[in-house]
Amino acid sequence: MQQTHDIRPSKLLIMEGMLMSLAFVLPFSEALVSIITVLIFAFSWLIISPKEKYQSFRKTPLPLFPAGIFILYLLWTTGTHHPANAIDEIRRNVFWLLIPVAVAYLPLSRKQIDRILYALALGVIISSLVALIRWQFSESIGITDIRDTTLNPHIGHSLLVNFSLFFLLLEIFRYREDSWNMRQISQLAGVLFLLIFDFWLHSLLGLLTLFATFIALSFFTYREIPKRLRKYVWAGAVVLIIIPLALIGRELYRQFHTSMPQPAQVAKFTSNGNPYQNDFSKTLRENGHFIYLSICLPELQKEWNKRSSLKFSDKDANGFPVKSTLIRYLTSKGLTKDSAGVAQLSNDDIRAIREGFANCRYVPERMNLSARIYQTIWELDAYRSNGNPNNKSLVQRWAYTRAALSIIAEHPFVGVGTGNEKAAFNEMLSRQNPKLRPANFSHAHNQYLNYLVTFGIVGFAILMFLLIYPLFRVGKLSVLTVLFLLTIGIANLGDDNLQTHTIRTFFALFYTLLVFGFANSAKEPAGNFVSNNNHQ
After folding, report:
1. Nearest C-alpha neighbor of 15 from the set 35, 31, 39
2. Predicted model pTM
3. How far does CA 147 lie from the centroid of its chain?
4. How far is residue 241 from each of residues 56, 206, 245, 380, 387, measured CA to CA in Å?
5. What are the pLDDT digits (tens) for 217-242?
6. How far apart are CA 77 and CA 145, in angstroms?
């Protein structure tokens, strides 16, 4: 699909280096991403003149289809009620235009594209190592959540990790006829490190995307999988489905396997003879233990104030009452909420409560993937119990989804327009969720719903056409290209990834390189819709 241009090798080499630099800094810095993208756009006109680009466009317009998304944002500013927001949206989405125009008609070879992909993988590995180092010094730099260790938002970083993992894995198979060498060993080490890091990061969306992408790929490549191997492929797909279900099932059982005891089964007095408060009408739990049983506030206050300079009536580091954090923490350890329970807490436990950790499993040193799943289950149970959606990630996402669907229903055809999205969500959320604090207002964490809110059915159909139509015109896609599209396509169901600068740039860059840059590469069969590319 690319046009051939007479370009001096030195200029093309410089452009390759700039593209490698852009790929490398994606997981590091949005500012560097912007600067390098603008430099690439400016330098591209020195490589291919405007006249040559126009001629290429007339012959093969498909590579510039993604640039049409920027035009869509421009057109939908008509009638905007918030010009400042509209200008900001235009500024942020100009990269849909800059990257395809700069990259689309470059005569890059497969080896050159591979080097750009390796630069991305190297940047992701180094930035992930930086995240691990930051976690080792988390206390001194004020990080309490593993997901805050990445230099970019953790969901976006997990998508870069997933794609880099897929690329390195495919590179190993591209050399499958060779004996193992340092190159393949390095690639395998990169795959294993990124896979371990994916689990360590506790990004549930990133892991679910990783599993779902592998499962979906087995469908795309089914006809080309040898019959003798199909049972193993499907067995692997089943395992990938079972793993998250098993983890979720285990946490559900641990939380809900006990039933509320009868009043006669619960102690009425502490060991000091003071009466307990027992509320049998409230079923909220911590690690399967009921929060509102066996509470003696006078003993809690007296014993806590002996052990902490942060008093019982104060607020913890997260702004919640120490009293409620202490009660939840004691419950999570299966301790009574009295002087005896507080006496059994270690100094590390006291510090964790002061820092706002309401469950012993949430403490950074103990936090793992199972605890992250449990945290989500607890948030849902707490919302069911008290109806408060604030600071509950999944519950708030549902509120945003409901608001988005309502906005779409009110503006079905052309949406609310560029720049009006924030006001539309704020108005709808305040109407539908009076308990949700304005500080927690946001847009839908679903890219497709956000596009429907902004552009309506008409604009959304145009946008999808701009991205999907070229895929059917370039011929069979490489396995890597399909993995790339599946990774972003699936992840966009759980977050608005293309609203972030890093992932928007990542998608525009590698959509252009993989879909159109691989178009003239030699291929080997690998499925009806995919093909693998021979090493050149």
Report:
1. 39
2. 0.89
3. 10
4. 46, 15, 7, 22, 31
5. 877 777 766 777 777 778 888 888 89
6. 39
